[in-house]
């Protein structure tokens, strides 16, 4: 499948929020390193970027869903922002959804080799980006957040890169299922145990799954989804 490569620079979404969520298609080949693309920027490095969150893939199919939703709500300004890169993704393509892509999937991306490491955890910067206070909540609840990838082998990628599945070691754990276990269903000890023991899942998600098991409950997501007071 063909994917567009996108990068972004830091900018202010409002007087308090700086972000590089607004990604644009690149016009030159990028070096895909263990921490991301040559021309890309990560602002909140505690929550974005790093070796296990080097890249973000967002299915382009979701844009039609959000166009319909925003226009149905009378939010034409938000709908006008919907173009590949608007969700902060570095990789934009069609033909692969959260229900199909699995944690641990390994893909050849031109000269690089990448692996799905975790679902994306949407945050309040989506709200600022689209001017709708609860948008991050909707993205999480609908399971339309995309996923993050680690880079196994560095290499060059073209602006329109070719991405092909090489290996699927964990077919039992689609991205959608992993996200639902944590975000969108009743407390699931068996599912959380499975996540905690899933070697190809990111260290942070495995640790959180173990923490939730020990606590007997998952996190309160309000600060991540709605932002600091």
Automatic annotation (TrEMBL):
This is MOSC domain-containing protein. Gene3D superfamilies: PK beta-barrel domain-like. Residues 24-166 form the MOSC domain. PANTHER family: PROTEIN YIIM. PROSITE patterns: MOSC (PS51340). GO terms for molecular function: catalytic activity; molybdenum ion binding; pyridoxal phosphate binding. Pfam families: MOSC, YiiM_3-alpha. It comes from the Bacteria.
């Amino acid at each position: 499948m063909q994917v567009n490569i996108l990068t972004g620079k830091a900018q202010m979404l409002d007087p308090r929020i700086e972000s590089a969520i607004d990604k644009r298609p690149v016009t030159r080949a990028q070096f895909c390193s263990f921490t991301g693309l040559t021309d890309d920027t990560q602002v909140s490095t505690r929550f974005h970027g790093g070796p296990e969150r080097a890249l973000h893939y967002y299915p382009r199919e979701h844009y039609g869903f959000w166009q319909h939703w925003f226009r149905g709500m009378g939010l034409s300004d938000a709908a006008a922002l919907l173009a590949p890169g608007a969700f902060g993704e570095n990789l934009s393509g069609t033909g692969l959804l959260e229900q199909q892509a699995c944690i641990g999937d390994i893909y050849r991306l031109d000269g690089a080799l990448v692996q799905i490491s975790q679902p994306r955890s949407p945050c309040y910067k989506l709200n600022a980006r689209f001017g709708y206070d609860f948008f991050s909540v909707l993205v999480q609840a609908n399971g339309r957040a995309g996923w993050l990838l680690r880079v196994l082998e560095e290499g060059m990628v073209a602006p329109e890169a070719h991405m092909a599945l090489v290996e699927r070691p964990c077919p039992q754990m689609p991205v959608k299922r992993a996200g639902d276990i944590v975000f969108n269903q009743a407390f699931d000890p068996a599912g959380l145990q499975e996540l905690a023991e899933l070697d190809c899942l990111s260290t942070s998600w495995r640790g959180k799954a173990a923490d939730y098991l020990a606590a007997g409950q998952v996190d309160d997501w309000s600060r991540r989804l709605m932002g600091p007071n």
